[in-house]
């Protein structure tokens, strides 16, 4: 549970990735982004399994897709890339923080999106990049 002053969401929180991490590890900002060729100023996470699945499935690389249960170690805010820009309000319950996220567990099993859904999403993202609309507010 987030014990900080501006609690946006009580969680639980998830982070989807292809990185192999251990319980107790901390995910931190200023690392290479899974979605753009630069270091990110934030670490991103969500309170929905659906969004975490997309995070794992769309992350760069060929490693195993993983979803971790995480605890924010500081204040966090709505992810402006999804909130209001694409989905008014925050139905994806997506957040970002400049403070670390602590890994508290890994989901042992979860149902992936279909290959067709993933290919459609990848094609849509490619089209956005080609149109110059795939910028991430970071």
Helices and strands in order, then pairings?
Elements: E1 13-17, E2 26-27, E3 43-46, H1 49-58, E4 66-72, E5 77-78, E6 94-97, E7 101-106, H2 115-130
Antiparallel strand pairs: 1-4, 2-7, 3-6, 4-7, 5-6
Describe the structure.
This protein is 19% helix and 22% strand. It has two helices and seven strands. It has helices at residues 49-58, 115-130; strands at 13-17, 26-27, 43-46, 66-72, 77-78, 94-97, 101-106. Strands 1-4-7-2 form a four-stranded antiparallel beta sheet. The longest helix has 16 residues, at 115-130. 22% of the residues are buried. The mean pLDDT is 84.
Short description, anyone?
With 138 residues, the protein is an alpha+beta fold.
The helix content is 10-25%
**Total E-strand runs:** 7
N-to-C span? 25 Å
Low-confidence stretches: none
Strand order of the largest sheet: 1-4-7-2
Query: Kindly state the mean pLDDT as a whole number?
Result: 84
- What structural class do the secondary elements suggest? alpha+beta
- Share of residues in strands: 15-25%
Radius of gyration: 14 Å
How would you sum up the global shape?
A: globular
Helix count, per DSSP? 2
Order of helices and strands: EEEHEEEEH
Largest sheet: 4 strands, antiparallel
Structural features:
three-stranded antiparallel sheet, 19% helix, alpha+beta, four-stranded antiparallel sheet, 2 helices, 138 residues, single chain
